[in-house]
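Every protein is a chain of amino acids, and every chain bends into a shape of its own. The fold becomes a row of whole numbers, each drawn from a learned catalogue of backbone shapes. The protein below has been through that process, and both of its lines are reproduced in full.
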Amino acid sequence: MKQSHSYRPVMLKICAAVSLAVASVSAVAGVGNSEQPRGQQFVLETDRIIVKYKDSQPAAKGMLARAAAMTADRKGRLDRAGQQFGLVVSESHTISTGAQVFKLGRKQRLQDVEALAAEMKARDPSIEYAEPDRIMTHMATANDPQYTNQWHYFDATGGLRLPTAWDKSTGSGVVVAVIDTGYRPHTDLSGQFLQGYDFISSATIANDGNGRDSDASDPGDAIVAGECGGGQPVQNQSSSWHGTHVAGTIAARTNNSVGVAGVAYNARIVPVRVLGKCGGYTSDIADAITWSSGGTVSGVPANANKARVLNLSLGGGGTCDATTQNAINGARSRGAVVVVAAGNSATNVSNSSPANCSGVVAVAATGKTGGRASYSNYGTLIDVAAPGGDGANGVLSTLNSGTGAPASDNYAYYQGTSMATPHVAGVAALMLAVNTNLTPDDIEAKLKSTARAFPASCSGCGTGIVDATAAVDSASTVTPPGPTVNETESNNTTGTANLVGTTGTTVNGAMGSTSDTDYFRVDLPAGKTLSSVLTPGSGTADYDLYVYNSAGTQLGKSENGAGVADTVNSANTGSTTATRYVRVVYYSGGTGATNGKYTLKLTW
């Protein structure tokens, strides 16, 4: 799918998780600006489809992805499926997950491309999955600048509590990938950028005269009203310079008597360009996730500066697709923590991807009062919140003054979950500089457990506002791994649920039959959040995950596809211990002690 930034501009809008004060930008994940109505601002069309065959192979260490052979029979089946919808299906390229991207000749509504995907799969049983190559946009919002300081770092009520963290860490030695619109050279970012890459495969979207190349600089993403097709902005928009604003929040030079400060100002940035005019494709973003975390992408030079933190201030509508989830799984396996903007539609994050993918740190936005920003998405899939700005108070960072093409350096206030996300990515970098052995799960758990209570209403915003000082303090200690236990049958009801009493426990279980269901009980202490992660034992297994309270009311669910991990978080916001029942349910795939294996990790 095409992806967008998460931010909101006051005068112009682009799809990003940020709010700009000077530039004109708005985000697909939700634009919270008075000139644009609330609700879904997603790109509802695409002209590409992703198809993965069962005999393809993803990129592995030292090996490129291997696409399935495009035989005449397979191509014929694709062609006949396309003919059903009046479309010509043509091969484009293979991505790092082993899936193949096909062009459709013209843009179609997402629901029509989903129907085409279903038709392709029905015609060819060798297809593992087919799905629209959705378009994402950034998630930011622009506002007129009104303040000359960065309240979002130090304000006692709504800030990150950052200054005292700098006594312990400044991010030295850590690389953060900003997967966004690219970058503009800026005085306040001098020396902070490492070699990046432009993953935009469409020359039209790239707006730089070509497709993929090693130049990750941002030529601008200004658009004319109607240029991006249905569901897109209906007025002219200036260039957002979104990636430059995000990069400044993470790593702007500090103590240099110029401009602004960065959260992890001694970290370095690898700029990875995936968003241009009208957004960016899911397939390009997936390759960017793979490459920036040290994975292999065909035709792209190896990344000499593997990132431990990936910042994705972008998003689009719908469930987490297999293409993105597979890329995230690969990045996590290489030790990268993936931090994602929740989106700016003021709706449940369950319909905002990739924030609803498993294994990410999903970030909501708060304002200066410490309450949920009016535009921010929310829900049980949110992990933590961070300052994103609201009302008259935006997030100040580096920008460019050009309305179309690049011009001079400047600074701007943006608002959005795009702005909240780099605050969290920066704190993750501070933590890794203290302890490079932290895993992605360690970082997520510590961010959540050290977050401070919300000083104002923020329902569905995760465990609290990220506390930079407390998070850095916690980084020096690694929680020892919990025990590994075996599931005990019969546990098909809440009354016979297996009790799990130690945080970090990994349960080895199995789906004994197609009608099997397994229950596990956790007595969750007050103020704690239960993280349940279900990992199937094979790429063809599809088991689903549900969490209930003691009364049997469903509190959360995850129903990802075959081979994809499911994650559900459930917070106990009360003052006493509360029972949670975690349920694993068979959907499809293998069964029995060998073919039905899964693991369930329970942490709180």
About this structure: Confidence is low (pLDDT under 50) at residues 1-6, 8-40, 141-147. The first strand starts at residue 2 and ends at 7. The chain is about 20% helix and 25% strand. Residues 417-434 form the longest helix (18 residues).
